[in-house]
Amino acid sequence: MTKIHPRLACALPPTTAITDHAIHAERLGYHRLWLFDAPALYGDLWVALTRAATSTARIALAAGVAVPGLRHPMVTASAAASIAEIAPGRLTVAFGAGQIGRRTLGRPPVRVAALAREVRQVRSLLAGEVVEIDGKPCQLLQLPDAGPARPIDVPVWMAADGPRMSAAAREIGVPGVLVTSEPTDPYREVALLRFGTVLRPGEDHRSARVIEAAGPGWAFIAHSAWQQAGIAVDGFPGGKHWRNTIEGLRPENERHLAVYEGHLSLLTDRDRDLVVTAGPALMGAGWVGSPAGIHAHITTAAAAGVTEIVYLPCGPDIVGELEAFAEVFHGCVSPGGGTELGDGAGVAIH
């Protein structure tokens, strides 16, 4: 019998508020802060990580996820080395295919082989090795005054949703994976990313706060459906009207620029209309529920092998969302009075 002790983490976009949010996350007991990489939507990932690193003392930091093709692998490795020098032992870099970071540039996500190649390249660069990139040998050559000595202690993870990504992660031997659904084949370290909100007494899908906090999650689902096939969003309540609005805003080759405004952050007026029209379906977007309901989600995830719960708060009150989720997480108490989840305790699974 093995006990799983999930850690509490959060994921946020690189915004001007990141310093304040990082300080609050550390104070609230969050183990790690993950930051997005989508330059068209948010500020620079590495600048934001620097701000978070210099304003906090303990919280772990992560690129979640760095996107291949946005930078040369040497640029990513050098940036990671600089953060590691500022905050030794606190940084993890996870790579993903770029579902948003590349879609917002009008580009498709990278293929699994390209993602795996960049993971290997950056990992080798951080180790101080010579690695071939675009047919040319590259190596971190920084002298002591210019960067930390190699090898540099920065674990390199992968986003691993789906069997092909999961298989690649195992083949490469990354120490951990970031996923958006509970794993069917648990990995050594599994960080589960979930959006949603903790309901207050009397709240439901009609509550203004819930619409703003949970709405970006519902909009994310709609954006993904549109990306797969534009008319697919017509199956959502109000989806056809939403699509017609998008089509009226931009020419066909620019519509992605309108779709992703405010993505996983704040609602545009057209996305808010879509969320309101969703009605009770909004309550099924991610983890939207009472404290007891969120507790049940956490327990189920732990039993599935998740080692880190990564909460993605949305809406205008990020600090309030972080506080509410942390209170539920740290208050997961067993009938006997012992803590089931969090530091020092866990749920038992076979």
TrEMBL record:
<dbReference type="InterPro" id="IPR036661">
    <property type="entry name" value="Luciferase-like_sf"/>
</dbReference>
<dbReference type="Pfam" id="PF00296">
    <property type="entry name" value="Bac_luciferase"/>
</dbReference>
<dbReference type="InterPro" id="IPR050564">
    <property type="entry name" value="F420-G6PD/mer"/>
</dbReference>
<feature type="domain" description="Luciferase-like">
    <location>
        <begin position="15"/>
        <end position="191"/>
    </location>
</feature>
<dbReference type="GO" id="GO:0016705">
    <property type="term" value="F:oxidoreductase activity, acting on paired donors, with incorporation or reduction of molecular oxygen"/>
</dbReference>
<dbReference type="InterPro" id="IPR011251">
    <property type="entry name" value="Luciferase-like_dom"/>
</dbReference>
<protein>
    <submittedName>
        <fullName>LLM class flavin-dependent oxidoreductase</fullName>
    </submittedName>
</protein>
<keyword id="KW-0560">Oxidoreductase</keyword>
